[in-house]
Amino acid sequence: MSEADILAWCVPLALAAISGVFLVLGVTVPGGVSWGIAYALAAIAYTTAIFPGGDYGVAKAILEDSLFLFAMAAMARGISERFQRRPRDFAALAVVALTLLVAGLALVFYDSVPAEIAAVQTGCAAFALFAATQMWGNLQKPVNRALFALALLLAANLLAQNVIFLVDPSPQLTTADWRLSSWAFFFQLGGIAFGLLFAFTALIAIGLDAVERYRVSSETDLLSGLLNRRGFELQLRAATERRGAEGALVLIDVDYFKAVNDRNGHAAGDMVIAGLGALLGLFADRLGFAGRMGGEEFAIFVEGADTSAGAAKALEIREALKGVAWPLPLAGIQITASFGVAAARPGESFEAAYRRADDRLYQAKQAGRDCVIAAEAAAETKQSDEAGSISMVA
């Protein structure tokens, strides 16, 4: 085997190895299986390109075209899966069928390799552009922008190659001499370069996704679905210490939670934690962010609110919680909570804001529970709403 043959075989072997990596990762990674299939098809296509076509030059060319087109379709499908967009499988099949029809007509009736190649590269460019559209709107992360740029670059490169190739004054190529032509080498080199760049970028994206999932899981409370104490503290620090945001910190403690557990079982306690977590999640979507600080204690940060506005939101949460109709084993039982509210000032430490809110929460529990007590930054006055549930204290 010559050095040229060894080099030629390195390409499909490398693509096959990349395919194996994506297929293994595809067990847990969205898009991984589709990308694994794409690289497997590309590996087969480059393998067939090594051998001369002989009397079956046209059939071999159509086979290679099919493999490359389906590889691009699988690549685009993987992009759709990664970005949680709906794949367009029927549209992809239509593009492949139309492209192969044009390529076949170019070879069979006109014996025109340039027209065949231009048709196939146009089809591949269509898949690259479709992949780019699937990424649009999800380009906040640099690695996603890199994938987007690669897709656009590939489409532009393929279409530019078509223009240059079709106006080339060189003698007309046939299926017999295409394999050893400089154009074939140039096109294959471009395809391999893109394939390696895409694989490298996609693997980086997968690695960063794994890091992000680990970060989210380390900052999320599984039972409530909210941030855990660490995650909430990091979010509040980011808001007040780094972004300089103002807001109200509301601490919430479920009343008589131990009695709920003792009388109705731990499953009932878990139901309360999960239910309150879901309720706070609905409020947090509109107001800021919420977390479970441990046990039956929760917190919500109302961004942009002063103490009075934070207390009003706490009252809304209090009333919403009291109105929950719990299923068995809590049917007919009303769950209440106590609330402590304090202002979280720009540049202030998490500990300082938390300490003031926690003091007010303690006062709420001492005052009989099922009430809201807020730290008022102004004068030492006390004020109650009509139901006697809000007190403003210095």
Automatic annotation (TrEMBL):
<dbReference type="InterPro" id="IPR029787">
    <property type="entry name" value="Nucleotide_cyclase"/>
</dbReference>
<keyword id="KW-0472">Membrane</keyword>
<feature type="transmembrane region" description="Helical">
    <location>
        <begin position="32"/>
        <end position="51"/>
    </location>
</feature>
<feature type="transmembrane region" description="Helical">
    <location>
        <begin position="116"/>
        <end position="139"/>
    </location>
</feature>
<keyword id="KW-0812">Transmembrane</keyword>
<feature type="transmembrane region" description="Helical">
    <location>
        <begin position="146"/>
        <end position="165"/>
    </location>
</feature>
<dbReference type="InterPro" id="IPR050469">
    <property type="entry name" value="Diguanylate_Cyclase"/>
</dbReference>
<dbReference type="Pfam" id="PF00990">
    <property type="entry name" value="GGDEF"/>
</dbReference>
<dbReference type="InterPro" id="IPR000160">
    <property type="entry name" value="GGDEF_dom"/>
</dbReference>
<protein>
    <recommendedName>
        <fullName>diguanylate cyclase</fullName>
        <ecNumber>2.7.7.65</ecNumber>
    </recommendedName>
</protein>
<feature type="domain" description="GGDEF">
    <location>
        <begin position="245"/>
        <end position="377"/>
    </location>
</feature>
<keyword id="KW-1133">Transmembrane helix</keyword>
<dbReference type="InterPro" id="IPR043128">
    <property type="entry name" value="Rev_trsase/Diguanyl_cyclase"/>
</dbReference>
<feature type="transmembrane region" description="Helical">
    <location>
        <begin position="6"/>
        <end position="25"/>
    </location>
</feature>
<dbReference type="GO" id="GO:0052621">
    <property type="term" value="F:diguanylate cyclase activity"/>
</dbReference>
<feature type="transmembrane region" description="Helical">
    <location>
        <begin position="90"/>
        <end position="110"/>
    </location>
</feature>
<feature type="transmembrane region" description="Helical">
    <location>
        <begin position="185"/>
        <end position="208"/>
    </location>
</feature>
